[in-house]
Amino acid sequence: MSDHAIPLDAETKAVEMPEDHRDELRLWLRLLTCSNLIEGEVRRRLRERFDVTLPRFDLMAQLDKAPDGMTLSDLSKRMMVSNGNLTGLVERLVASGHLERRVSELDRRAQIIRLTEAGQAEFRTMAAEHESWIAELFGDLTEKEQRDLMRLLAKTKLSARRAVSGEA
Amino acid sequence: MSDHAIPLDAETKAVEMPEDHRDELRLWLRLLTCSNLIEGEVRRRLRERFDVTLPRFDLMAQLDKAPDGMTLSDLSKRMMVSNGNLTGLVERLVASGHLERRVSELDRRAQIIRLTEAGQAEFRTMAAEHESWIAELFGDLTEKEQRDLMRLLAKTKLSARRAVSGEA
DNA sequence: ACTATTTATTTTAAGCTTAAAATAAATTCG
DNA sequence: CGAATTTATTTTAAGCTTAAAATAAATAGT
């Protein structure tokens, strides 16, 4: 398994010896550093260039893919944030004219949220620039490196999901 | 460069044609998903097992590595969060008995923050378990995959840093 | 020594985020 | 039908986070 100098109990396996997981910890910290570094820069640029926050951008991105609108619950599931969080986020984006809400005709509890025309236009401008920022941030990786990273992250995602759910 | 069907201006390069950066965007979204998935699970477990938040855990982790304590500014730089953020975080951990602060003798503006004995003991218990959670979350990756991922993330970090600073 | 600047920290205002409790409409089932 | 449950959403309380303004002590330059 590991080449590290883990004290072993002579003949047997590492009995009662807590395993050394420092490598995994380093891997996690590096993954987190990358993610935070990029996310932080994207936040900064969104604010600087468009005076918009990342959560608002993410919300608009979801709605841009759903021209007929979505309910708060749908959005909540897609974005993996709480319902209460979305309530406030949508409120502010309605106030600023980016979103519109109407009560569902089929279910009087639910609301359908949509981008306004102005909201969509603004989002698409931002999205185009955002995409080029991401390309710039990953720019020093070759195509092969990008593919490899993609594959390894796919596996990481599955591994984490397995551990998050009851697991095996 | 890319195999994709980007409309080209016959003889020349892709003149005035915005490039397709969807692959980089997908890569970024996958990286973010992995990071959020793991971070969310770590937060959940820290809360469930130890009733502690991730920011508090991170703060204690920094202080555990500095037995003689650190100033708020040092902590701020190390943790890459704002000074104001730390003010509140430290306040709450002092109140709960995990940290102690004393005014620096050399500089009456500065405070030296340290883990209390109780705080250190509690942190080390948490850290040991935390490390095993991380190993579990990355558990499905082989050692080679972990090494490869480590290397690719190192390169990603450099790439992002280059783009964040003025760049080339 | 005095003024200007820098550095360490706190405060403030705004927004993001969550879990848990509350509301209210829809659905299920006896 | 009518009670019990589920589902959609909002509210609440607490904490995290930041940028920008405010304080206050230290340092530098004259």
From TrEMBL, chains A, B:
Q: Which InterPro entries match?
A: HTH_MarR-typ, MarR/SlyA-like, Tscrpt_reg_MarR-type_CS, WH-like_DNA-bd_sf, WH_DNA-bd_sf
Judging by the UniProt lineage, the source's domain of life is Bacteria
SUPFAM superfamilies cross-referenced by the UniProt entry? Winged helix' DNA-binding domain (SSF46785)
Pfam families membership: MarR_2 (PF12802)
Q: Does the keyword Transcription apply?
A: yes
* UniProt keyword terms in alphabetical order: DNA-binding, Transcription, Transcription regulation
- Give all residue intervals belonging to the HTH marR-type domain: 24-158
User: PROSITE patterns under this entry?
Assistant: HTH_MARR_1 (PS01117), HTH_MARR_2 (PS50995)
Q: Which Gene3D superfamilies match?
A: Winged helix-like DNA-binding domain superfamily/Winged helix DNA-binding domain (1.10.10.10)
The molecule here is called MarR family transcriptional regulator
Originating species:
Microvirga puerhi
